[in-house]
Structure formats: structure tokens, C-alpha cells
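Data availability (excerpt). The following record was deposited with the supplementary files.
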Amino acid sequence: DESLRKRILTKAAAWGIPITAEDIVMERRRTAIAVRVKYKETVDFFGKYSKDIDFSIFTEAPLKESEGTFQ
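Predicted structure:
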């Protein structure tokens, strides 16, 4: 799970998405893994106004079966 977390952080940094390891929640289930990322970003409008926007991203994918166990 830590290698997946590092891959997510690396991609987010490359795309300029301001997340930390604490923003990533992973839940390993019997045959799948679920990942949720929540973060907030402040958007500046013409130097006069700013707005905080909350983002919440969720995905779930099946685990691969290897020798009778799921990984």
C-alpha cells in the first residue's frame, strides 16, 4: 500500500495537485482496494477574489489473484 501511496503522491506533484500522504485513505478489501483522496485548493480570481474548492476523488479496483491470494 505504501508503494501505491508514493505513486499517487508522485503523480499529484507532477500535476501540481497539493496533497500530502495524510490526504490519501486506502482501504484494502478481500478482493479489491479502494482509494480516496480529499484536498482543498484556493483559486484566485483576478487578484481580487479567492475561493476555496474542496476536491474528493474515489476509485476502487480489483486486486490481482496470485497463487490463491489477492495482492
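Summary of structural features: The first strand starts at residue 24 and ends at 28.
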